[in-house]
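Audit log entry. Action: structure prediction of a protein-small molecule complex. Ligand: NAP. The ligand was supplied as SMILES and no pocket hint was given, so placement is left entirely to the predictor. Protonation state taken as written. Sequence taken verbatim from the request; no trimming, no tag removal. Recorded inputs:
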Amino acid sequence: MRIGFVGAGKVGFTLGKYMSERNVCVSGFYSRSMESARQASIFTHTRYYETLKEITQSSDALFLTVPDGAIGEVWDSLKRYSLTGKLICHCSGAMTSAVFSEIGQTGAFGYSIHPLFAVSSRLQSYQELSKAYFTIEGPEKYLAFWRDFLEGLGNPVRILKPEQKILYHCAAVFASNLAAGLYEMGVRLLMECGFDRESGEQALGPLFTGNCLSVAQKGPLKALTGPVERADLGTIEKHLGALCGPERDLYRGLSGVLVEIAKRKHPQRDYEPLSRLLEEEWRRE
Ligand SMILES: NC(=O)c1ccc[n+]([C@@H]2O[C@H](COP(=O)([O-])OP(=O)(O)OC[C@H]3O[C@@H](n4cnc5c(N)ncnc54)[C@H](OP(=O)(O)O)[C@@H]3O)[C@@H](O)[C@H]2O)c1
């Protein structure tokens, strides 16, 4: 199985390196700019192609590792070539394989294969990819093939139905990008307490990383600390009184989620007064 990458960006570099290090036959790279494809080929000790046609002819499977908005356009160009029996994949978390429109008429099979991982560096991220879950969505015919392939690389794999992908992607956004939004809210509140942005960002760092690690390693139930777990009504009431607008809405909504976790952790503790306080605040607005 020769695997080619169309799109020599962060994910193309990372998957290409990760696979070639694990003895997968990576046929090489094609990209919008030849220089990106050339750099990726050097990094992965593979080759680069000057045309989409050439990489298609030299590959049994193609990963379209281009931005989500370019997948349809690249697919439209690919359709012009002979694709019988080829596997065409993209790596978008939100999109399904349905983006490969009329693929049945080409004789190819389309999949979405998503690494549940923040790929932030073209050159470094491959070193951490073995921890990542992969999800696969697409026609039955090659689902087991891709699952075995990815498990063979050492990664845990889940198969998703097309209708599950958007919620699945929301889950990833909650656990990653939105955490950056929460961090930013914390920084802004510190700035209201006299910190400048730089020192505010620095000050929250150890709290954030320590807590994130703890949540990821032990799970939210064991890692939970703070006033909600303690059912500390007085403190939470003061917090709600000090916040307003989106901060207060978020504080209330997320505290409601924490109450559910805390109830599972301490079934004997009475969280009803706290639940009522959080609902009461909703009603006041
Ligand atoms: N980054 C992540 O954390 C992450 C994680 C999981 C999945 N994904 C998914 O992986 C895919 C790629 O994301 P990325 O982060 O690797 O993006 P990226 O770093 O921006 O790389 C995309 C590459 O695609 C190339 N490209 C753009 N339009 C093209 C076209 N029409 N034809 C050929 N090449 C084209 C660009 O090439 P040039 O350099 O040649 O201009 C660019 O290097 C997306 O579907 C994304 O949703 C990303």
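Audit: result stored. The first helix runs from residue 10 to 21. The pocket of NAP is lined by residues 6-12, 31-33, 36, 65-68, 70, 73-74, 90-93, 114-115, 117-119 (CB under 6 Å).
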